[in-house]
Design goal:
By secondary structure, the chain is mostly helical. The protein is 80% helix and 0% strand.
């Protein structure tokens, strides 16, 4: 009976441990505070601020995907990785299509 419970906890990639969750939480907290500091104390200006915030956001996305969703290139992790990539593709298509439509509407309304 204990074998079934061990399989249940290890489903979806590697075994979920408290250490991995605490590492992910602390990294996300540091990245959020770094972004907050950039904006609050105006450490960068203009385009460089937007680029730095975008880079911090992408790094935080990767941290959350790896630490919390357990997406990786292992055999078990690939079963979760493909639906995640498909979801990202759909979001990019929807967001890009919406921006394209709004740009064309703005252009044609002038």
């Amino acid at each position: 009976m204990s074998d079934h419970s061990a399989e249940h906890f290890e489903h979806g990639g590697s075994q979920k441990t408290l250490g991995a969750y605490l590492t992910g939480f602390s990294l996300c907290l540091v990245l959020t505070m770094a972004a907050f500091a950039l904006v609050q104390w105006k450490l960068l200006a203009g385009v460089s601020l937007y680029l730095a915030l975008s880079v911090l956001a992408l790094i935080q996305l990767l941290v959350q995907v790896i630490c919390f969703l357990r997406l990786n290139v292992s055999e078990e992790g690939r079963w979760n990785l493909l639906p995640f990539l498909f979801t990202l593709l759909i979001i990019v298509i929807l967001a890009g299509g919406s921006l394209w439509v709004m740009y064309n509407l703005n252009y044609n309304m002038q």
